[in-house]
Amino acid sequence: MTRTFLRARRPEHKQQRREAILSAARELATASGVRNVSLGAVAEAVGLAKSNVVRYFGTREEIYLVLACEEWQRWADAVTDRLRTARDTADVAAALADTITDQPLFCDLLSHASTSLEHNVSVPAAREFKVTALRTAADLGARVGRATGLTDSEGAELVSAAAGLAGMLYPAANPPPTMAEVYAQNPELAAHCPQLRPSLVRALMALAAGLPTLR
């Protein structure tokens, strides 16, 4: 739904507009995928000219890096909640896999982060994204370490692996229409289409078992 705004003058109004832009970008990406959303589409959805949108975010990519930061924190909160009842490494691997699978937008953003979203952005925007991702992974890694017997750095490595693998596997596990048709017509090929959650759990269990042997 297209929104129409008067010119934002006061700080709170500017913040409201910023949040409206992020909300519109989130809705569009959730509906059609990150790669299919243009800056013009975001501007139209929020009722602004593109020239007004770039006053708040320099580029489309910067909008989605901000959303990626928000998704990192949402994921960390969800994992932390699950870790309260985790009894062993299998529970932790399941917690990481379940929670990230439950955030398809996050997986989509991760799949585009290094290939497109980190391009065409300002240095401050790129720095903020990297600092947020690394800090969140480190904080969550310490919690994962306590739940698994891994060190803090090993826990952070497990968290980073979960995010990296989710970003890599998500596009393959959610094929475009043409490839979906290929799979429908060729079951022998469909058997090789990865399933996101099981693939994540298996990889994370293997990594968690192997990390202590490298100390």
TrEMBL record:
Which sequence positions fall in the DNA-binding region? 38-57
State the source organism's domain of life. Answer: Bacteria
The answer to whether keyword Cell cycle applies is no
Its keywords, alphabetically, are: DNA-binding
Question: Pfam families of this UniProt entry?
Answer: TetR_C_34, TetR_N
Secretion signal span? none
Give the GO molecular function terms. Answer: DNA-binding transcription factor activity; transcription cis-regulatory region binding
Domain named HTH tetR-type: which ranges?
15-75
The answer to keyword Transferase applying to this record is: no
This chain belongs to the protein called TetR/AcrR family transcriptional regulator
Please give the organism: Nonomuraea deserti
